[in-house]
Amino acid sequence: MWLSEKLSKDKFCKYLFLSGVYLLLLPFFLNIEKLFSGSYFFYGDYLSGSTTSFSGNFLNFLFLFFVFTLLFFSYFYILKEGIFLSNVAISLTVFAFFLLPPIGSSDWMLYFNIGREVFKGVDPYLKGVSFVNPFFSILGSVKFGEVKNFLPTTPLFNYFLLFLYIISFKKLFLFLIWLKFFSLSFLILIYRVFLKFPGIEGEKLKLLIFGNPFLLFEFLSNCHYDLFWVFFAVGVVYFLFSEKKLKAIVFFFLTSLIKYSGFGSIFLFLRRKRFKIFFFALIGYIALFYILSFQFNFEIFKILRGLKIQVFWAKYSLIHLISITFPLHSVKLIFSIMGLLLILSFLYFKRDIIWEEKSHEVDFFLLTFLYLIAIAFFSAVLYPWYVLWVYFFSIPLFFSERGRDIFNLLLFTVYFSQIIYPIEYLFGRVGVSVMWEVFYVSVLYFCFFYTIFKFFRFSKN
Predict the structure, then answer these.
(1) Domain layout of the chain by residue ranges
(2) Which of 84, 178, 242, 449 is the most buried (most CB within 10 A)?
């Protein structure tokens, strides 16, 4: 009664959403002097390896849990009820996450180090790259630790990081700004490509891309570079849909050469029965990969060493939990067979949709399913931003009655991955990691399996 008299439910939900966005910035403004003294503000401590007390970190996580929960449920209500957010509100939301330092990941510092090593003429695939402590100054030079990482990054992306290192004048702070700028640029490009597909409404799409707080948090704040390959993967769908085969091949080369994950888009050529293009794309990819690798090391297996290490390293996944008792390679093999059987079953039982229906919606439907299976059954590491790959490809399903349930389930999966993953990390520091990993994995895999069930119930248009 009071709400209806003083403030409508829709307006109240809008205010909650915007309040959540700016609550994330509150610690930044309260502790801004720390940024210029060489460290981050308080709730970034869980990545630092610092000696901050467990109780202090726990309070920080309670704060994050509260803000993320407020953001998610207000955002979900806005989507469900079709509430309009003004361009000003969307712009302020994007600006807030652009301003927010990368408190959820230190990967961007590894990117800086890669650019630095390549600039010095060091082959990062042979010697590895030093781990960077995120609590060293972000304004000046970086101190490098002794821990070495053998890279899962591709040669093409390493060239891009070299470019960023040069235009940032070897300064980490400028490197971060450029990385955020390119991330925002690719986010805008993804939005513009999606607009070209029939049936997609611009205002709702704007909210799905520029209003999703978890998407902005991972890609605009934490600066994971997945937006780069996702853009080109979406471009592959668009050019196949537009019957522009050459451009589709070029975009396939770019998406798969930027990150190995982009290689999954090659199956779109098979779906549209472009078998000659499929083989040409496959051979061309191998050739281009060798050419780009020559600058680093022509021994291809050394370049793929980082990918191999990542594939056989397990954490935050059902594979990891089972491998505590059984050998990891055996668990990986069994899960890979299960994933492959699910894909083959899906292609068989949904053959009337997959092989006959030529709409772009089915292209994204297939990509969403393949990447969902990939992160659930083939990946031994399950990070929150992996789930967002699937979210991107499911966006066109939001505009379809038959695909809306799948999109909603994936949105809930994104939320759970965001709030549980850092809590598991926190409790892992005090010796109860397995308990929280069981909880994390149970929630996520329930969402995965229920979503897979919905995929098998996807009806013909």
Answers:
(1) 312-461
(2) 178
